[in-house]
Amino acid sequence: MEFTVGAIVEGKVKTITNFGAFVALPENKTGMVHISEVANTFVSDIRQHLTEGQDVKVMIIGTDNGKINLSIKRLEAKPQRENTGRPNFRSREGQQTQQPRPQRQAPPPPAAPKTADQLFEEKLKQFMSESDSKISSIRQYSDHRTKSRRR
Hints:
- The chain folds into two domains: 8-75, CATH 2.40.50.140; 114-151.
- Helices cover 22% and strands 28% of the residues.
- It is built from one helix and seven strands.
- The protein has one helix at 116-148; strands at 8-16, 20-25, 29-34, 55-64, 67-71, 88-90, 96-98.
- The chain is elongated and about 80 Å long.
């Protein structure tokens, strides 16, 4: 059997890793299904989709340097995408139709402008926190230098 790109073969899951699954194919060949090729949805844990010893139908998506790359998700039907929000599209008859626009929420009202006292207080707090941070790093540095000098 020749393993060509696009061919659909059946195999058995041999080993599961964090990045994919190795599948035993006919003629004592082995291919790998990368975690991104397991399902049409995001897969954080491949073990939720596959188990060792499971029979799977896979599509060969590449052969590089003797390595066989496989996909399971390319054999599944793609999920329907939701409307992209485009208001106009052409029907099969070529007539332009109008799609209802989704309602948008009004933006929140802008915050009241800050007074000079509030701005000063914020700047003072920022200055104090930066100053405390600098002083503590200087103290740590000087403590470290004095501890390393022993007489």
